[in-house]
Specification:
Blueprint lengths: L9 H14 L16 H20 L12 H18 L5 H21 L20 H23 L8 H11 L3 H4 L10 E6 L5 E8 L2 E5 L9 E5 L1 H8 L5 H4 L3 E5 L16
Parallel strand pairs: 1-4
Antiparallel strand pairs: 1-2, 2-3, 4-5
Helix pairs in contact: 1-4, 1-5, 2-4, 2-5, 5-6
């Protein structure tokens, strides 16, 4: 599929985040979120860390600590510890200071990503899509999904989810996440030409199709020539939770409808587009 460009959406996402945070009451900052053990304030702190860490590492070339190795497991362990350390240190910051620092760092972060050549190699690959080397456009799209879903965790906690479920903002999130499908289905056998059509409902949803070709799966625009081998319909309101490890299988099943060959729908329930 063609590259997906999201860098122009980051300032809008920040604007919506700041408007939301400035509207919260003190008790809202203490509400639990879908992120395990994190309150609203902790997720906001994590978003701030993302801004500052990107500027330090990628813009300024200062990487500080490093994981024990480049293996996926070691990187995940390393990132989890970094996240926990940052959130613990941030408990001394007030909501007003957290919001101020997000407003201060966001434009610098966005300006840096906008300065990158979209087709040039990124410093970090998009590992959850199975890539060992990614282009900057995909790295930026991955950053967009991080910012989108963490803001949505805050919004879910305070009952203001609708603002990010628009075609302008939600479709790019979904389109980025679903680019992990060929890698995620790599061990799923099917006959040559078999297709899996994924439909996400709602204003920001859409249609994506996987096709089995030459012992691999390819993501492509849906065709109308023949019915898909498997058709999966997923409720748009919760699709983001399924892809970010915050919708248990038992709950997900009530939001998914499958027709055709059911076994080809199974991998979608474990699709993971975050480092975990």
């Amino acid at each position: 599929m063609a590259p997906l460009h999201t860098v122009h959406l980051l300032p809008l996402l920040d604007e919506k985040l700041l408007t939301l945070l400035r509207s919260l009451k003190p008790e809202d900052w203490e509400r639990p979120t879908l992120a395990p053990a994190w309150r609203v304030r902790d997720v906001a702190l994590h978003l701030l860390d993302g801004n500052l860490r990107t500027l330090s590492m990628l813009r300024d070339g200062y990487f500080g600590q490093a994981p024990a190795s480049g293996s996926y497991a070691d990187v995940v362990t390393f990132l989890n510890q970094l996240n926990a350390d940052w959130v613990a240190a941030g408990q001394r910051l007030s909501p007003a200071v957290i919001t101020w620092l997000l407003a201060l760092s966001g434009p610098e972060y966005n300006q840096y990503l906008a300065s990158l050549d979209p087709q040039a190699p990124a410093v970090f690959s998009v590992a959850w899509a199975g890539e060992e080397q990614s282009a900057n456009w995909f790295h930026t799209a991955r950053e967009y999904t991080e910012k989108w879903h963490h803001q949505q965790q805050i919004r879910q906690a305070v009952g203001q989810e609708a603002a990010l479920l628009t075609a302008e903002l939600y479709y790019p999130f979904l389109d980025t996440c679903l680019r992990a499908l060929p890698h995620h289905y790599r061990n799923t056998e099917a006959g040559e030409g078999a297709t899996v059509l994924i439909t996400v409902t709602g204003e920001g949803g859409g249609h994506w199709q996987l096709r089995r070709l030459s012992q691999a799966w390819k993501l492509e625009a849906p065709g109308n020539a023949q019915p898909p081998t498997t058709h999966i319909t997923l409720a748009g309101a919760v699709a983001w939770r399924l892809f970010t490890n915050s919708l248990p299988r038992t709950l997900a099943e009530s939001h998914v409808h499958t027709s055709g060959e059911a076994r080809l729908a199974e991998p979608l329930f474990s699709l993971l587009t975050v480092m975990a």
